[in-house]
Each structure stands twice: as C-alpha cells, then as structure tokens.
Amino acid sequence: MKPTPFTVALAGATAASLLFLVLPIVAIFAELSLGALLDGLTSDVALDALRVTVETNLIAMALILVFGTPTAYLLANRSFRGRALLVTLVELPLVLPPAVAGIGLLAAFGRYGLLDGTIAALGVDVAFTKIAVVLAVTYVASPFYVRTAIAAFEAVDQDLVAASRTLGAGPARTFRRVALPLAGAGLGAGLALAFARGLGEFGATIMFAGSLQGVTQTLSLAVYQEFDVNFDNALAIGALLVLASALILFAAKLVPAWKRSGSTSITVFAPSGSR
Amino acid sequence: METLRLDIDHGLRTFRLALALELGAETVALVGPSGAGKSSVLRAVAGLLRPERGVIAFGGETWLDTARGIDVPPEQRRVGLVFQEYALFPHLDVRGNVAFGASDRTRVPELLERFRIGHLASARPRDISGGERQRVALARALARDPEVILLDEPLSALDAYTRSAVRGELHELLSTLGLPTLLVTHDFEDAATLADRVGVIVDGSILQLGRPEELVAAPSGRFVASFTGANLLPGMASPGSDGLTEVALDSGGIVWTADGGSGRVAVAVYPWEVSISREMPSDSAINHLRAPVVSIVPLGNRVRVRVGPVTAEVTAGSAERLGLREGDVVVASFKATGARLLSVA
Fold this sequence. Notes:
The complex is a heterodimer of chains A (275) and B (345).
Chain A: H1 5-30, H2 34-42, H3 44-77, H4 83-95, H5 98-109, H6 116-122, H7 130-154, H8 158-166, H9 171-200, H10 203-208, H11 219-229, H12 231-264
Chain B: E1 4-11, E2 16-23, E3 27-31, H1 38-46, E4 53-58, E5 61-65, E6 70-71, E7 79-82, H2 94-99, H3 108-114, H4 130-142, E8 148-152, H5 160-177, E9 181-185, H6 188-194, E10 197-202, E11 205-210, H7 212-217, H8 222-228, E12 231-239, E13 245-249, E14 254-257, E15 263-269, E16 275-277, E17 287-299, E18 302-307, E19 310-315, H9 316-322, E20 329-334, E21 339-343
Parallel strand pairs in B: 3-9, 3-10, 7-8, 8-9
Antiparallel strand pairs in B: 1-2, 1-4, 4-5, 5-6, 10-11, 12-13, 12-15, 13-14, 15-21, 16-20, 17-18, 17-20, 18-19
C-alpha cells in the first residue's frame, strides 16, 4: 500500500527531529580520536571533576531521598487547604532559571546573606564550598524526584493501604510494608531523573559554588572551563557525560519494566508436593 | 456473649447513611442495590470511614463515639475485613499476604492448609484463580484473630460456577467461626443462604431487618417485596425419575426440580411461581405442599400468603375468592421448572 501524504509528512518531521537531536552527540564522538578521549578522561581536570561530581551528587541524592520521599507521601495522601500551592512550590525549581536559583541560594546562604548569622554561628562556610555544590544540585534536581514520587504514591491502590490498616499495621508500618514497595519502581525512576539533572547542573552551581578545580568544579563546569583551555579535554568530558546520561535514562526506563516482569516470574503451577 | 453495636449517621453524596444495628454471634447480611451505602457501613465499622455522628462498640470496647471524641484507628479494632476485590498485596506471595497481620506467625502454615492454599504459598496473587484469591483473603483476615468479620460482596468477584461452590464453603466457615459477621451484597439469594438475618438497605437506611423467610413472607413494602426474591427451602438432593432431581426438604416433604444437583442444596422458588388451592389440583405442577396458612400479608393489589415453609404471591382477588384465613389447611403448588437448585455445601 502506498503511504499517504500525511504519513510521509509525519515521518519527515520525525526524521528531522531525530537528526537534529542526535547530530551534536555524534559530533562529540566524531571530533575526538580514541587517544584524545583517553588523554582527556585521565587529565587532572577531568579526574578532579569526576570525584567532585560523584561526591556531591551522592550526598544530594541521599538528601533528596530522605526529605523528598516523606514530602511526596504526605502530598500524595493528604488533602488539605493549600495542597495545590505546596505542590507548586515543590515544583518551582523545575521552571526557575538555574542562574536565578544560584543567586537565590547565594542571597540565602552566602556571606551577608539571609542566614549569614546562623551559618557563621555554626562555624561553616557554605558559598564556594562543596556544601554549596550539594545544595545547588539538591535544589534544582529535587523536583524531578518529588514529582515522580507523588505520582507513584498516588498510584498505590487505596484499598491495599486500607487492608494493611485493618490487618493491624499502623500508618508507619503501612508506609514501609505497602506504600514504599508498591511505589518503589516509580521512586527509582524519579531518582534516576533527578540524578541525570544533578549531573548536568551548571547555572546554579557556578553562581553559588564557583568553579574551583578539585573543590567545586563538577564535570559540567569542567567542560565549560576546558573549552577555553583544551578543546579536546572538553569534548572528552562531554563524551563521558553523554554516556552517563544515556545510561541513567535507560535505567529509569528499565526499572519499572524489570519490576513488572519480576513480579510475574513466579511459577504459576507450583507442584502441590512442594509445600 | 460479645455483641457489635452500631448507630451511625453520615452524609453520603445523595443521601444520608443512617442506621442502627446490633449483632451477636450471627451473620447479618445487608442487601440492597449498588450505591445504597452498604460498603460505607463496613468501612465505618473497620475504622476506614469516620461517620459524622454515631457510636460503634464491640463488647465493652468503644470503637467510635463522636460525642465523646473517640475514634479508635483501624489497626486497633480487631476486625477481619474481606474486600470486594480482595485487596491482596501484589508484592507479597500468598504466604506473605496471610502472614502480614498474623497475631501468631507459627499458625500461618496451619491457615494455609485449612484454606487449601498451602501449595500456592509462594505464588503471587495475580497468578491464582478468583476462588483461590478469596480463600487467601479469608485466611489473611482470620490470621489476625478478629473479633468481628466484615465481608464486602464476598461472592461478586467470582464466576457463576465458582460462586456456588464458594457460597457453600463460606456458609460452613461462618458457622464454624461463630463470630459476629456483617456482610453486604446486592444479591438476596447470597444473603439468604449465608445469613441468619437479612437487612434490606436502600439510600442509606434499613427498610426491613429479619430472617430471610420472614422477609419473603411479610415484606414491609413493595421495594422489599421486589428485592427479596425467592423462597429458599433447604434440603438434600438426589437424582429422581424422569430426569428430575428429588429434594427431601429439611422441613419435611419432597419437591422435584428440573435442575441437576446432589447433596446439600436450597430450592429457590419465587413467590409468584407458587399457586394456592383448597384441594389437590390436577394441573402440570408436580410439587404440592399441603400445610396450614401461617400469615397473610396484603401488598397493594397482591397478597403474600405463607403456607408452611413457602410463601406464595397471589392477586388480592384470588385470595378473596379462596376465602383464605390463617390456620386454614391449603395446597401450595409449583412446577419443577419453577424450582431452581442452589448448592449450599
């Protein structure tokens, strides 16, 4: 059968979109020889940036999990006045320009900032330290997790929660034994998205934490700095980030699929003699 | 004897749920059309719904008293609630489901055996049949050692074939347990076979509460009359002549039905399938029960006449022509094709 003009138009637009999206990624690898890639990845700048990125992101993801999960559970399960406003506030960093997030963090936690007295009393410096990187990443990446987590908790069948309660489990045990495992796949996907956003974080970090090699310079910041100094290094670090992001995206898509197939892999007709 | 006592008043979308009920070690069924507020009653007893006003008490414990600000959370009320779709935990296997609320984990294997789900212990709920799921849900609810059993449409998620087998099992289980049991269903026959007393509930209120045969014999109004449906005559079935099934009724006498079956059964006969005469008729009806008239209840232009164990519905004109009075010995007749068999064991 001959494709209709409509189908041809759809296919044409899709091909143009894909080409445009994939071209820059292909270019990174095409412009780089294997030797230059290895040199770039083993350079001090890249290794320092990798260490800073991994450290700060792990701490940021832990913070997002510890504070974001209860927040999402509350927002998913309670209806109260102002709930919609709270959800909007939680999502705000999603649409906030990263530079604005950075200047805001500086105004709050920086020297002479809103919380300057409190922070000075604790004897810590925040701005332009690793703590600043963690805060910037947490700030911009958290909505990716919390939004997905709210949806995951909302999707838990309320009859199952009710069943757990009538079976003697209080709200905390119900959360741990029913809601958390059932929302688990969604939470995993949300965390993967937040991690991907955290790896790419640039604007808020450079405003609030600066770009000090080995201290606050993450991989994304190193790409920007090396772009002036050693273009091949910038490309090599870029290639690393492309691979990492692609892996995370696949993981986010695979987790739910794995959960689904995992729960059906049980032997349906277990031999009755096996009890 | 511990009794469950409830007296609640709660606004639902289009009507108020307002009912009072007291039950001892018996099964009470609330039967009514869907959306009558039946499930809300169960949720209120379980503590999953907080009525605007009311009292719910079990024995000496007060579970809810809105006037005194008492509302015991669900996990502290010892109820075994079986949900309509069973609400089994999909992330746990059968053993994990039953053990979830178990007061004594060492009893779990015994419960799995008792409900014939031992061989499914490591299967997930999605991989087992509807009848098996129901047994898991019952075992899970009983593992908690409940003081009250609540069943939400216990048979509606099952296909017709499984349903009749499960109805018998459930009947036996409930009488063995001897716990106050409140069940809701939209099916009068399920209610009548499972429950000692049946309450017909419409728009949040109980129109009539009584033993099933009382509801059939003396419905309080047209709605109850149309909803109550059939007489249920318990007995033992065995194959008879002419391809009919012979049922020896517990109340004495034998009736024949065109349905096949054997063992413990209930014969279901709709009141309007039963005719009444003074003498033994010579018509196509094969079933004749000669007994005194117990009650005569007028319902508009019709009359419900209870003759021994069965209730007949005849027109007011016929009743007048026969000159029926309570105590008169008459013959109630119905055809073998008008008698249906329900398996109850």
